């Protein structure tokens, strides 16, 4: 495996932990930190070969920014689904 | 240039705004980004300040001659729906983003020729450790000497340590706004000429414009393809 593929694999392996962190921030209603974490995920997932994860994170980030927190739990679950079903 | 005349993009403008490299000047790019098919020339000149009105006029004339913009009236009188043109750039950006790509604009800076066997040096200012590591690994494979700074303090320390050939600068850092850092770099006598490529998840006209206005040489939106990031870096460095 070349070094870039190794880093991509590492990124994928760490996604469950990132997702758990997002859920914790949501439970704590730390919306500022949550928005930042979603922003980071949205900006990097596509580069690591997971564009659908990035899109879902972007949508959740927009909800955080607009104060539409009611949909956040479902959107964070959607990020997990996209990650699980990524090729 | 009539003060109320409204210009809009041609297809060539959208290619230019989403291409890996442009030969247009920063002033011309700035106007190209500002032009939205609705705003008159007088308002454009106001928004493009501190560009002098004469420079705005010259840049607009050049953009017209080069076929990047056309008077909106010409399009409407020809029976073409201007809405198609007005939204082309935004549709292009949306399409690129949907496909996991990017918006990239790069201006060549004054090229520095490395002496024999000397590597070009890159400073990656990015707080996402995994992304920074991926960029560093890729550029190292491409023959660059690469350092990482994850915060304002780390950037300042890295610049004090050695002047890089190019900086890749994230717009949103935990302890600073990347655009403010760009402005600070441009004011510092020791590093003001260092080419800076901004990396950001914001791909709106306004955010592109902010980067260009504050002196960015390139602008790449996240998520990006590392191959294209390399192209942008090489473009601003003037190397192949």
Structure description:
The complex is a heterodimer of chains A (87) and B (240). Chain A contains four helices and no strands. In chain A, 78% of the residues lie in helices and 0% in strands. Chain A is elongated and about 40 Å long. The longest helix of chain A is centred in the N-terminal third of the chain and has 25 residues, at 3-27. Chain A has 87 residues and is an all-alpha fold. In chain A, α1 (3-27) packs antiparallel against α4, α2 (31-44) packs antiparallel against α3 (51-66) and α3 packs antiparallel against α4 (72-84). With 240 residues, chain B is of the alpha/beta class. Chain B has twelve helices and ten strands. Chain B has a six-stranded mixed beta sheet with strand order 3-10-9-6-4-5, with helices on both faces. A two-stranded antiparallel sheet of chain B has the order 1-2. In chain B, strands 7-8 form a two-stranded antiparallel ribbon. In chain B, β7 and β8 (176-177) form a beta hairpin. Chain B is elongated. Chain B starts with 6 loop residues before the first strand and ends with a helix. The chains are: A mainly alpha (87), B alpha/beta (240). The A-B interface holds A 3-4, 7-8, 10-11, 14, 36, 39-40, 42-48, 51, 54-55, 58 and B 98-100, 127-128, 130-131, 133-134, 137-138, 141, 172, 174, 200-201, 222-226.
